[in-house]
Amino acid sequence: MITGPGPDPAQLRDILAMAARSPDHGRLVPWRFVVYRAENAGEIADKVEKLAEEVNGPLADDQRERERNRLRRAPVAVGVVSTAAPHEKIPEWEQFLSAGAVAMNLVHAVNASGFAANWVTGWFCDHPRGRAILGLAPHERMAGIVHIGSCDREIAERPRPDVDALISDYSGEYRG
């Protein structure tokens, strides 16, 4: 569970500066950050709850609570927003990967700064109205929301993939 305290404004700025040092073909900077603070959580919760009801119909109490808590999991959350746009040399998918690299760098920067991070992206990040609620323009996409704070317990290691099963040596052109 991520709890307080979270980083102060200067610490958060340093963390974001570390995260922004990321692969960026063409120096397009195809991402931006949106900081969601506790004072905005209630407004966002109301809107996400309403959207969930519009999409799914009436919510059970536990569903309602889950939707209301999407940006209340930590003292601060940072949205890493892909601003990928058509470019003559750099495909949009590569720009989106760059935003994903920023999100991963953000998780590492948070941990290196002595805080805890959890990268999640909910269903509402893929919904046009959800993206608007989160402050995204119609052409933007959420690469990830990173929740930042302190951890109140030891994090159990989760099962990891067998790395050896993921490795292959080049053996020539793919022939199907």
From TrEMBL:
Its cofactor is FMN. It is an enzyme of class 1 (oxidoreductase). Keywords: Flavoprotein, FMN, NAD, NADP, Oxidoreductase. Its EC number is 1.-.-.-. GO terms for molecular function: oxidoreductase activity. Binds 1 FMN per subunit. FMN binds at residues 21, 25, 119-121. InterPro entries: NAD(P)H_nitroreductase (IPR052530), Nitroreductase (IPR029479), Nitroreductase-like (IPR000415), YdjA-like (IPR026021). Belongs to the nitroreductase family. This is Putative NAD(P)H nitroreductase. It comes from Oricola cellulosilytica. The lineage of its organism: Bacteria, Pseudomonadati, Pseudomonadota, Alphaproteobacteria, Hyphomicrobiales.
